[in-house]
Each structure stands twice: as structure tokens, then as C-alpha cells.
Amino acid sequence: MHLSGTRSFTASRQLVWDRLLSPDELAACMPGCEDMRPTGPDEFTATMSVKIASIGGTFQGKVALLEKQEPSRYVMRVEGGGRPGRVNGQGTLRLEESDGVTEVAYDGDVQIAGAIAAVGQRLLGASARMMIGKFFDCLDERLRTAASTD
What we know:
Helices cover 29% and strands 52% of the residues. It is an alpha+beta fold and 150 residues long. Helix 2 (23-29) packs across helix 3.
């Protein structure tokens, strides 16, 4: 499954970059994230609870941030599994700033196997886009809250 899109934030590129690399921010905004811990430089383990249609469960996974070019680009690799199946994916995030607005563009591919893959490509794609939207909505709210307290 291919996922791509953009999202704009009224914040500096450096601030958005810092938030996108913070395990605390990622865990707070990632839908279903129960735990996220650093295991090394730019590597994390995560536990997520996911439900799509009638199939759900807990995933244990690893996240690695690669090819970092601060503050403009990095590659994220994700792999994990659990009772509902396996997920492997890789994508690139790019950040560009203009007039105090930072645009984040993401582009990547995800492979899903097991029971969760049985719900169908269309439903999986819609669910993935919804989760990405919720993540970015949360990040936007947290950036706005931080800006209003400065």
C-alpha cells in the first residue's frame, strides 16, 4: 500500500523537526500508541493497539530513523507484528518552511500481512489515512499550545 500526502503547520521547520523526532511527542500523537521507548540512537520500540473493522490487537514493533538531513528530511522504517498480522514499511518525510509555515510531505510504502490484511486494501488505506490525519491533528494542536505559552 502506498501512502503520501502533505500537512502544513504554523511553526518553524526546526520546531516541527524536533517534535517529529521526539519519542514523547510521537507516542502522545500516534493513535493507539501505548508505549514508545528509545533503544539506541534514532531507534525505538513501540507497542500499539490497532483495530480495523472487526480485526484488532496489539502490535510490538521497531522504528528506525535513517538518512537524517536536519532539519529537512529523514527516512522512517517501521516493522512489527502481533496477533492480527505483520506490518513492514518505509517512508520519507520532507520539511520545507516558507513565511513561518512548515509543510511536511510524506511518501512511503507499507506491506501488511495476516488477518488484518484480510479486511481489504480499500479499508486499510482509509484507516491508514485516518490514523495519519489524527496524528497530524494532534501534532498541530500540540504545536499551537506550545506557541501560545511562549
